[in-house]
Amino acid sequence: MHTALERAAVPARAARAPHPRRAGFAVPAGSTPATSGASPAGAAPAAALAAAGATGSTATPAPSLAAQFAHDVLAGLARRRRSLPCRWLYDERGSALFEQILGLPEYYPAEAERAILQQAAEAIALAAGPHATVIELGSGSACKTPLLLGALDRPAAYVPVDLGEAVLAASAAQLAARFPGLPITPLQADFTRLAALPRRQGAGPRLLFFAGCTIGNFEPDDAEALLQRLARAAGEGALLVVGVDHTRDPALLVPAYDDSAGITAAFNLNLLVRINRELQGTFDPAAFRHFAQYDPTEQRVEMHLLSRRSQRVSVLGREFHFAAGEAIHTESAYKPSPFRFVAMAHRAGWKQKQLWVHGRSRFAVHVLQVAPWA
Ligand code: AVJ
Fold first, then answer.
1. What is the value of pTM for the model shown?
2. Ligand 1 centroid distance, CA of 333 (Å)
3. Pocket of ligand 1 (CB under 6 A)
4. If 147 and its partner were Cys, which of 31, 117, 119, 208 is the partner (CB 3.0–4.6 Å)?
5. pLDDT tens, 150-168?
């Protein structure tokens, strides 16, 4: 099925990626500044990339994913405080490593969310009523979706939204086998750039499912803006089921992002391997190490890659010098207080319906509804 929305969802226009430091956004030296103020971290002008050797002579105006990646990496490495958007962690190998993270004993959010959904699905289903159209944002392997779909009263359709083509096809096939008769229409798109949300397929409401505390990877302002766009697009009565981590204990947080088996380290370092492969990078991954820390004032866990020594690296023909110990920030995972999150959701046009908090950690699932005043 190819709806107008699907066409609109193809990232034809520049928009910003879910990343920490877009304030202070810098364009690589020697390139033309980004053109439109409306798209702060949009793709670099084709000329800039061509000059950097990224696209050769095939400079098309529409930023392909490859061009966005090139731009984000060159801009991110040129910053005084180097940073790379965490969305690029998920190439094929990165996605496979992330699946392994979900099975780690230290990575409590996976188990906590599963436990909550197991208990809460019935109540969420009651709040949604019959014939809901379930739209999952960043669906990935959609491993928790059956818990929700299984409890809902005659769901009208399931629309997984993800950038990964392979992961989308695999999860759609799996759910189709599990829920015969349920219309499943995967949408390959960046959910932060949807021009509109998929249509309701029945008389029930839209139910947005945003699992895995992915919202924590957005800077607070970006998270609020996303929630606001979703509220407006989803319309009055729509529900949002969103996983948010409120854990505050460093003893729980740090191992979750720096596990003893080194899977998270491999996941983080794989970004350098991807840069080498896709952007003619010369990173020696062994010359960097994974570093994770909890910042209680920012209420977030940060992942970094630290240079083990003074070294030079080139990417797309551009040279970057790393001092010993210098960091590349690769991910933030915000762990706001419940009050802070609900206040933000409220400003964005959502009212609180239900809140489920895990006992051991403080991982939570919030059920929100688009407020009539939104
Ligand atoms: C993508 C939000 C599920 O931030 O906890 C896991 C990504 N990074 N370990 C998170 C991640 C390191 C994860 N989520």
1. 0.83
2. 7
3. 101, 109, 212-214, 216-217, 257, 264, 331, 333
4. 117
5. 999 999 999 999 988 888 9
